[in-house]
Specification:
Blueprint: E1 14-15, E2 20-21, E3 37-38, H1 43-50, E4 53-60, E5 78-85, E6 88-98, E7 102-110, E8 114-122, E9 129-140, H2 143-146, E10 156-159, E11 162-168
Parallel strand pairs: 3-7, 8-10
Antiparallel strand pairs: 1-2, 4-9, 5-6, 6-9, 7-8, 10-11
Length: 172
């Protein structure tokens, strides 16, 4: 008579905000997000790449504080410039967020031809708001045209699904 097979207990995994540690992963650490960054493997960015646009980089300026910790609300989601160079374009805009914010950034095409610039402010909560300037640089990829399909044209830009922020996509 053979004895029934017993399952080995699974290794315990400890998850904290700084790293993932387990016996199976000795020597490997996964660090928590620190600072502003592109959410590079998001579903939104994968679909955007398929549509022929690659979010190459994002730059975030330091907080532009006012003396009293308040900002002009007209500076929020305001395009400063859209520039084109070779096979790239850069959208520079300002946002008003908490002074201690960092940003998680991505983008997507919505409503067929609107580029939705997405950013999530995160981090410590401070008692002031300030203006940040963000620059999203996109690479235009013509791989679809190489296989006989057309790249999706962009006609408008909006921020964080806010239709009130929607403007025409053109050189500023």
């Amino acid at each position: 008579m053979t004895e029934p097979e017993t399952k080995k207990p699974q290794e315990a995994i400890v998850i904290d905000t700084a790293r993932i540690v387990s016996n199976a992963m000795d020597g490997f650490e996964v660090l928590a997000p620190k600072g502003s960054q592109v959410f590079s493997e998001s579903v939104k960015l994968r679909y955007l790449r398929y549509d022929g646009y690659f979010l190459q980089k994002v730059q975030v300026s330091p907080c532009e504080e006012s003396g009293d910790g308040t900002q002009d609300p007209n500076d929020d989601k305001k395009i400063k410039s859209i520039s084109f160079k070779d096979n790239t374009f850069t959208i520079e805009f300002s946002v008003v967020e908490n002074c201690c914010s960092e940003f998680l950034c991505e983008a997507e095409l919505v409503n067929t031809s609107t580029l939705n610039i997405v950013y999530q402010a995160f981090g410590r909560e401070c008692s002031c708001n300030c203006k940040f300037t963000l620059k999203y640089t996109f690479e235009i990829n013509d791989f679809r045209e190489q296989i006989g399909e057309k790249r999706t044209p962009i006609s408008h830009i909006q921020f964080n699904n806010d239709r009130n922020s929607r403007i025409a996509f053109k050189k500023y």
